[in-house]
Amino acid sequence: QHAATQNKNHDLSSVQLKTFKKFQRRLNDEVSDYRIAWVRPYKENIIAIGLESQKRIGYRKGLQAVKLAVEVEDETGVIVILR
Questions:
Q1: Angle at CA 30, nearest 5°, toward 18 and 40?
Q2: 8: closest CA among 29, 32, 37, 46?
Q3: Which residues does 39 contact at the CB level (< 8 Å), separation at least 6?
Q4: What is the pLDDT of residue 56?
Q5: DSSP of 17-81
Q6: How far apart are CA 68 and CA 26, in angstroms?
Q7: CA distance 71 to 46
Q8: How many CB atoms neighbour CB 67 within 10 A?
Q9: Is 1 exposed, middle or buried (0-12, 13-18, 19+ CB in 10 A)?
Q10: What b-and-e string marks burial along 42-63, b requiring 16 or more CB atoms within 10 Å of the CB?
Q11: pLDDT digits (tens, 9 = 90+) for 41-83
Q12: pTM score, two decimals?
C-alpha cells in the first residue's frame, strides 16, 4: 500500500474505509496500470481517490476504473470520486 493512502486511512469512517478497500482490490485486479496516490473523505457518504499511472492510460482503462467506482458505490452506498 502506498504511504500517502496509508496516512489518510485514519480520516475515513468505517463504511468509507470499507468502500476504499473494496475499490482498491478491484482496481488492482482489473486495472493494475493505476496506482492510488491518496484517498480523502469528502462528505459522510463520499470519498475522493487520486489515481496515478506511470504511463499514459487509454480511454478504455479510464472507463473501466469509473465502472469499478460505480459498482463499489452501488454495493456500499458511498460515492467514489476519482481524481
A1: 35
A2: 37
A3: 5, 8, 9, 12, 20, 47, 48, 49, 50
A4: 84
A5: HHHHHHHHHHHHHH-TTEEEEEEEEEETTEEEEEEEESSPPPHHHHHHHHHHHHHHHHHHS-EEE
A6: 7
A7: 14
A8: 13
A9: exposed
A10: eeeeebebbbeeeeebeeebbe
A11: 999 999 999 999 888 878 899 999 999 999 999 999 999 999 9
A12: 0.85
Give CA torsion, residues 57, 39, 24, 50, to 10 deg.
0
Which position has the grid cell 489515481?
51
User: Which residue in the block uniquely carries the three cell numbers 480511454?
Assistant: 59
The rounded distance, in Å, linking the Cα atoms of 20 and 9 is: 9
Q: Taken in order 22, 25, 30, 35, is the CA torsion positive or negative?
A: positive
